[in-house]
Design brief:
Elements lengths: L7 E8 L5 E11 L6 E11 L10 E6 L7 E10 L3
Parallel strand pairs: 3-5
Antiparallel strand pairs: 1-2, 1-4, 2-3, 4-5
């Protein structure tokens, strides 16, 4: 049986107040059907950060995983860019 590829998203960390958890804001642009203007859509994901290395403002790559808690279904794969 072939293994499915896991979904990945890139976003910025907006909260790291929890232990081994971060909240990541992922922004995407969607084109309006009638007017053609691009609209920003935001989604917040809770992600598991095993080493507590993420800080607010960091750009991270998250990957889907099995449910780790009531709200956590994503895992921090890597830190793309550190905040200043």
């Amino acid at each position: 049986m072939a293994e499915k590829t896991k979904k990945t998203r890139q976003g910025s960390v907006i909260s790291n107040k929890m232990d081994k958890s971060v909240v990541v804001l992922v922004e995407r642009k969607v084109r309006h059907k009638l007017y053609g203007k691009y609209i920003r859509r935001n989604v917040k994901y809770m992600a598991h950060d095993e080493s507590n290395s993420c800080n607010i403002g960091d750009t991270v790559l998250i990957e889907e995983c099995r449910p780790l808690s009531k709200n956590k279904r994503w895992l921090v794969r890597s830190i793309v860019e550190r905040s200043i």
